[in-house]
Amino acid sequence: MERFNKYWQRYFHWFLGGFGVIWLGWSVFVRGVPTQIDGLNHFYRLLELHWAVQNGQFYPRWSPDLVYGFGAPLFNFYPPLSYWVAEIPLLLGVPAPVAMQLGYLSAIATLLVGSYLLGKRVSGSQWGGCIVAIGYGFAPYTYFNLVERAAYPELWGMACVTWATLGILQLVQAETMRTRLKALLLTVLACTALVYAHSLSSFMYLPILLTTAVVGLFAGKVYSTRRGTSWQVLLAGSVAFAWVLLLTLAWWLPVLYESHLVQLQRTLDAPFADFRQNFVNGYEFFAPPPAYDPLLMAQHRAISVFTPMLLLAGLGLWNWRKHRHHPLFPLVWGLLALGYAFLQFPQSLPLWEAFPTLAYLQFPWRLLGPLGLLLALLSASGFQALPTRWQNIVGVGVVLLGLGYSLSRSYAPTQIPLAGITHRDIPTHEQATGWIATTTSSEFLPIWAETRPDALALADAYQNNQLPARRLDRTQLPVGVNIVSEIAGYQSLVIEYDSNTAWTAYLNWLVFADMQVELDGQSFALQIQPASGLAIIADLPAGRHLLRVERRDSAVQSWGSGVSFLPVWLA
After folding, report:
1. What's the rounded Cα separation, in Å, for the pair 69 and 50?
2. How many other C-beta atoms are found inside a 10 Å radius of the C-beta of residue 203?
3. Exposure of 193 by Cβ count < 10 A (0-12 exposed, 13-18 middle, 19+ buried)?
């Protein structure tokens, strides 16, 4: 019996993760890959990443199949780590829909196990870990992202932040060099994964991560009686911060210096994405679970807070002096929770207007994610303040209540069959939905593309699987120009021509940094067609020549990738 208890305590979080994946991911098991709202877009992004990897592009800046095949710099601004999780089984021969299912289920498992370990760290008990896993992992907003929004990258963001918070707590509490190094590594890897999985989540959760680190540093003497602990923690935290900045340079450097080359403003122009239209009211915020609906006949927005956790969270605030580590933790988490809650209501409009960058969140109810984590942490604090004789009863009650509370949210509509779909179907998907470059607002269109290109210009190439598509527009080929050969690569084009007159080549290719043209090995000028943003190569000389057009990484992209992936290159 003693051996059983020993193994039960050691592997309990894996049991919890397995059970939680089945319970929380039941709709993914039964109905397949979520395809509603953003689901199809994320699936097509996986296919586009797979096509890039097949062509040797492991961090593709340019996605040639988007915008009807004219291309767009999707992954230059939207980091691809969450899709890489599904890409690994896809490379091993698993069908794409199954690989995407594994991606969703992996996110759920990562979230639940990370939440459990974080709660156990905060409360010092396994039941405390279960409470955080239930309070955060089974919250309405988690189901909303999984079942209704199919917000696959955001699920990974929610998962990574639990490990990042755990790493920070371990880092500020470490007393030996070995434990500090392990905590430093966990913090760096988790924070880096958070940025590359869902960069918007890294901004939403940043106040939680920073304040937890600051409070931990301030309370450093509580964790150790050894002289010099505070400055060692500060040094380790500074190293972690600098390390994360360097490892994420591949994403934030192009975002910082090349965002003006795409139409990000479109994300704010769409009426449905205007934050003013997406505040919540009191009823929505505290709404009970929806009625049981196995066929999901009545759609609902699960934008409510996990109300059963409010009681335990309030107990954690009430007993803030009895916190296991330091009383500042529940106080700071409580203040942050009030701030995140306030920003979801219309009364916070002046704050949203005072800080224009908040508008890129689009939906104030997104903040239910970080609010849910804070409530779960406060609930673990409240739990550890309970008398010992009540903890087992309350722990079992919270778990059962959480499972029952989430049951009616776990039903998803019938999903669209995805078997047989490949990256060749992306232009057709864009035509059918109007979602250009796998976004609802077409915000990744280059700034020169004021009008959308002809959706049928490359249709034959995609229908006949003649990919990569040949990009020379032969409908505008002047008389007297003979194309000897045209060889299309993933992001290159080589044309050999013989002409008796000077001419202009029109390419079915949207321009973005950095495209280079060579004629017979010598640099040649590239122009941009007004309004359409397509590439033009004017004044090509008569005679027989070899023309090469290639999209290469810009200096900013190359520097970012070179620094961030240096450990990979060295390995």
Report:
1. 16
2. 14
3. buried
**Which tokens sit at 550?**
């290639």
More confident residue, 504 or 5: 504
Rounded CA-CA distance 106/93 in Å is: 18
Q: Write out the H or E segment, with its range, that includes residue 493.
A: strand 492-499
- Encoded tokens for 337: 């929770």
Omega before 553 within 30 of 0, i.e. cis: no
Q: Do 526 and 513 touch, CB atoms closer than 8 A?
A: no
474-558 is a CATH 2.60.40 domain: yes
Query: Which residue do the tokens 């009616």 mark?
Result: 408
Write down the pTM of the prediction: 0.93
pLDDT score of 257: 95
CA distance 439 to 429: 11
Tokens 């869902």, located at residue: 198
- DSSP character for 430? H
Q: What is the pLDDT of residues 261-287, one digit of tens each?
A: 999 989 888 888 889 999 999 888 988
Residue 326, classified by CB atoms within 10 Å of its CB into exposed (0-12), middle (13-18) or buried (19+), is buried
- CA 565 vs CA 54, 89, 246, 443, 490: distances in Å: 19, 22, 9, 27, 22
Of 545, 527, 529, 525, give the one whose Cα is nearest residue 482.
Answer: 545
pLDDT at residue 5 in the model: 59
Amino acid identity of residue 1, one-letter, is: M
CA–CA separation, 469 and 458 (whole Å): 7
CA proximity to 278, closest of 335, 209, 349, 223: 349
442: enclosing H helix or E strand: none
Helix axes of 249-258 and 177-197: crossing angle, nearest 10 degrees: 40
Domain boundaries, the chain: 2-407, 474-558
φ, ψ dihedrals at 549, nearest 5°: -120, 130
Burial per residue of 512-540, b for 16 or more beta-carbon CB atoms within 10 angstroms, e otherwise: bbbbebebeeeebeeebbeebbbbbbeeb
- Calculate the alpha carbon distances from 35 to 100, 411, 559 in Å: 11, 14, 36
Q: Helices H, strands E: what count in the chain? A: 26, 8
Cα-flanking dihedrals φ and ψ of residue 24, to 5°?
-70, -35
Residue with tokens 């009191």: 282
pLDDT value at 127 more than 60: yes
* Residue 341, φ and ψ in degrees, nearest 5: -70, -45
Cα–Cα distance, 391 to 395 (Å, whole number):
6
The C-alpha torsion from 61 through 67 and 70 to 76, rounded to 10°, is -10
Place of tokens 């003979």: 482
